[in-house]
Every structure is written in structure tokens, then in C-alpha cells.
Amino acid sequence: MHENYINGEWVGAGEVNRNLNPSDTRDVVGEYARGDDAQARQAIDAASDALETWATWTSEARADALDRIGDRILADKERLGELLAREEGKALAESIGEVTRAGRVFKFFAGEAIRFGGEFLPSVRPGVSVEVSREPVGVVGIITPWNFPIAIPAWKIAPALAYGNSVVFKPADLVPGCAWALASIVDEVGGLPKGVFNLVMGPGSKVGNALVTSPKVDAITFTGSSDTGRRIAAECAVRGAKFQLEMGGKNPLVVLDDADLELAVSTAINGAFFSTGQRCTSSSRLIVEKGIHDRFVERMREATQALTVGNALHPDTQIGPVASQAQLDQDLSYIEAAKRAGCRLEAGGERLSLETPGYYLTPALFSQTRNDMPINREEVFGPVATVIEADDYEHALALANDTVYGLSSGICTQSLARATHFKRHSSAGMVMVNLPTAGVDYHVPFGGRKGSSHGPREQGSYAKEFFTNVKTSYTLAQGV
Ligand code: NAD
To answer: Where are the catalytic residues (predicted)?
Structure first.
């Protein structure tokens, strides 16, 4: 059994989580410990006790540790990519890409450990100077979703460690494999003091809840669904813990009449269906100006039908299976509801039986949908995209912004004026011009607005806003 990692030791748990391959449900990826709240508390105590020793490490020593972890992830990217594809169902090439990103994130934050600094200012009072410095927050609880099982943990764990915090990491139940593999790399090459990094696999209701409610956990960084995020926010607010939430999306891609049709179609196909549509940044609403609408729908239908759905490990698969039975049921119920509501199914939306038993679903494209329908209001989180027709640019912009979410948005146009206006007036945290709404760099801030996000941005040097506390010190120089 793959065990939890607490205070530098591998520790078993009473319950076992059998990790199944969604491309072939006969294939057991492995058996993983399913910890509980008592184990979470042990890890929290270890992380709390480790802070003192961790604080004696120089920034250079922290940087070297992160660099070694990043190097090992990159060296192992084929093996880890295969594991990711096998446990989550992401197509192999994308899985290896995600692992590569995780390695790069560690190496980026290795540099940040040394680079980040403070400010020194003259005071407004005579003889006084002011320092603004940053200190670790303390013990950070890291709670992650299943859809990016190595990249999201990496972009939370790496900055937490870079800025001197200790960590208790709780991955999603569905994907313990990548979390465990990452923990084993930290154990093997990190050389961190015992207790600085801990992995506790187990249910959100026990392990996650123990992190959120423990007075010894100073900050919670969470990525997952909006419902869970809201619950965590309420708990953290009551006990005064710092928290950061990245949640759902209903991201619009606007296609204007002047767009390059082929570029718009490939952008929409990538944004809507790659990673089986299971991305918080996926382009689930395609808002299309009426002059290009019919041609766009026709080309999208052809391109959607041409996608190869298959076993995530097969090299020619473009769209892997849905990650779980529960997610598949959710996708199918939204597809049925959209049909009942009168939306036109242009392509896909069907269960596929392939040679290995898995949760295969052909990507579904709907036209003739309205923005007020549930399929356009609620996050499906599957390979399901809708087309909404817009009268003109202003109408398209209004539709794009008419959502409770605000993570990512995009526009396909050849007009610099429209692109500039859209960048300024989109109510999303990230805006793409002639690019898919999903797919971001790791050295710049990531995050949304409205119901999609709460708290400081993740990634890039902006990550320090969450993972450090600011201190302002005043000095009156005496003597000389
Ligand atoms: P989820 O909310 O079900 O679970 C996320 C994590 O929270 C898991 O580790 C889970 O075990 C834990 N959890 C559940 N209940 C908890 C509780 N009461 N206390 C503490 N922890 C608890 O989400 P999911 O299904 O794993 O992920 C899919 C969701 O994640 C989608 O909504 C997607 O949009 C979102 N997501 C957002 C981003 C982003 O950056 N905005 C990125 C990826 C995924």
C-alpha cells in the first residue's frame, strides 16, 4: 500500500483507497492509504513543530531543495505522465505536459526563494526609517482537486516551501497516485527537515475538514468546486485563518465576424474539449457573432466529430475518458437536460464502448442555446460546449460577462480595437486573444473574479501575497 507521509515517515492508514484507471476500470493503479482526521492532526502537529528548524535554513538552501525536486520531476516526466494519464484519464501528451509544468514550477520558485525581498523607505518622521519585510505565514493546508493532479499541487507546494512555510497536503480522493509520487520525490531528493512537508490522503470531510478547522493551520489554499470553497471560506473566516480559493468557471470564448475561421475553430476545440473539458478554464460557452455563426457551427461540428476519443495511454488519443462514474453521470444529465430544453445537439454527447471498459463520452457540441439556460449558467466540467448566437460585439461582450463566474475569457478577432476593448471590459481574471481560454504560463498570476476566486492570485511572484505575511518595522537610529 502507498502510505501517507507524516513527519518524514511513511505511515499506513486503516482504510484503503483503490485507485482505478478511468480508461480501463479493470486496471487498479494502486492501493493508497485513506487517512482520517486523527492522522491529519498528527501531520499538522509535525508541520507546526518543524517551523523553527525550517526557519534556520537559508534561502539558498531552500532554493536548492526546490531545484532538486524540479529536476527530478522533469527527469521522470514520462513515468509520471503515464501515471497521471492512467489515474486521471488525461491524454498522454497532455499528461506529460502537465508534469513538465509541475517541474518548471518548482524550478521557478527555487529562484523566487532567493529573489523575493522587501522594501526600505524613509519615514515621514525625522531620523526614522521603515522596513517592509515578508515572513512565512506558518503552517499551510493545501487542498487540491482531481483535474490537475500534479500541476496544482506543485503550484501550491512550491511557493509555500519557497517562502518558508511548512505544508500539509491533502489531494483529491480520485487521484492519490500523482500526489504520492510527488511526496516520494520530495522525500528522496528534497532533504527537507522532518515535518516541513506532509502528505495526508483521505476524504475531504475528514482530512480536509481537520485542516480547515485546526487552529494550528495558519492558512488554507484551496482549489476545487465552488460549493466546497464557500464552506471552507466560512470556516476560515470564523477562526481568522488566511485563505485563498480557486473554484469553478463558465468561461466564454467570443468569436467575432472578422475572426480567422480556422483559428477560431481550433481555439474553440482546444479550449472546450482538450483535457476532456475537465478544466476550470475550459471554453464552455462559445459566443458567436451572427455573421460567422453558421459557418463556425458547421466547421465546429466537423472538427468535433473528427476528435479521437480513446484510452488516455494510446498515443493517438486526443480526448481521454471522463475521470469518474460520478462525473460521467453529471455530464450525461446536463446533456439530456439541454436536449429537453430544445438545444440542438450538433455532435457527440454519446457514451462510447471501446475495447477497454472506461468512462468514454464523445465531446458534445450544442447550438441554439440561450445564456439563461442551466447548461450556460452552471459548470458541467466535462466535454460539453454550447454555441450562443450574438447580434454584435457589444451583445457578445454582455453575454460573456453575464455569469456568476469570472475565471477566464477569450476573443477571436483580427481587430486590435475590439481585442483591446475586450481585454479592458471582460469581467474575468484572465483574458485571451486568439488563444484558448485554457492554457496559461507559470510565471504570471493565475486566478479569477466573482464566484471563481477569492483572495490573492496564485503563481508567479504574485504567489508571495498569499504565502507570506507582511511586517512593517520602524527604526529610530540612535548613537553614532
Ligand atoms: P471538490 O470541491 O469536490 O474537491 C476539491 C478538494 O476539496 C478535494 O481534495 C476534496 O477532498 C476536498 N474537500 C471536499 N470537501 C471538503 C471539506 N468539507 N473540507 C475540506 N476539504 C474538502 O472539487 P473537485 O471535484 O475535486 O474538482 C473540480 C472542481 O475544481 C471544479 O469546480 C473546477 O472548476 C475546480 N477547479 C478550479 C480551478 C481554478 O484554479 N479555479 C482549477 C482546477 C479545478
So the answer is: 246
Nearest atom in ligand 1 to 226's CA: 32
Cα-flanking dihedrals φ and ψ of residue 416, to 5°? -65, -35
Same domain, 63 and 144: yes
Query: At which residue does the C-alpha cell 507524516 appear?
Result: 6
Average pLDDT of the segment spanning 414-440? 98
Work out whether strand 408-412 and strand 384-390 pair parallel, antiparallel, or are unpaired. Answer: unpaired
- What's the structural domain count of the chain? 2
Question: What's the pLDDT score for residue 480?
Answer: 66
For residues 319 and 228, membership in a common domain is answered with no
Given a cut of 80, whether residue 226 has pLDDT beyond it is: yes
Domain that holds residue 308: 251-433
CATH number of domain containing 178: 3.40.605.10
User: Which position among 94, 112, 246, 346 bears the catalytic label?
Assistant: 246
Residue located nearest, by CA, to atom 26 of ligand 1: 145
Residue 303 is classified by DSSP as H
Q: Which three cell numbers stand for residue 402?
A: 453575464
Mean pLDDT of the chain: 97
Q: How far is the CA of 412 from the centre of ligand 1 (A)?
A: 30
For residue 345, what is the domain's CATH number? 3.40.309.10
Q: Name the residue of 17, 230, 247 whose CB sits within 8 Å of the most ligand 1 atoms, as the mutation to test its pocket.
A: 247
Calculate how far, in angstroms, residue 414's C-alpha sits from the geometric centre of ligand 1. 37
State the DSSP code for 460. G
Taking only the tens place, the pLDDT of each residue in 34-70 is 999 999 999 999 999 999 999 999 999 999 999 999 9
438 belongs to a structural domain: no
Cα(35)–Cα(3) distance, integer angstroms: 9
- CA atoms of 130 and 472, how far apart (whole Å): 7
If asked whether residues 126 and 228 sit together in one domain, one would say yes
Contact 179, 88 (CB under 8 A): no
Q: Are residues 258 and 229 both part of a single domain?
A: no
Are 320 and 214 contained in the same domain? no
Atom of ligand 1 nearest to the CA of 203: 11
Q: Which atom, in ligand 1's list, is nearest to the CA of 229?
A: 2
Q: Which residues have C-beta atoms less than 6 Å from ligand 1?
A: 143-148, 170, 172-173, 204-205, 208-209, 212, 223-225, 228, 231-232, 246-249, 280, 379, 381, 407, 452
Count of other CB atoms within 10 angstroms of residue 237: 10
Determine the distance separating the centroid of ligand 1 and the alpha carbon of 121, expressed in angstroms.
Answer: 41
Residues 112 and 167 placed together within one structural domain of the fold: yes
Has 246 been annotated as catalytic? yes
pLDDT in tens, 138-188: 999 999 999 999 999 999 999 999 999 999 999 999 999 999 999 999 999
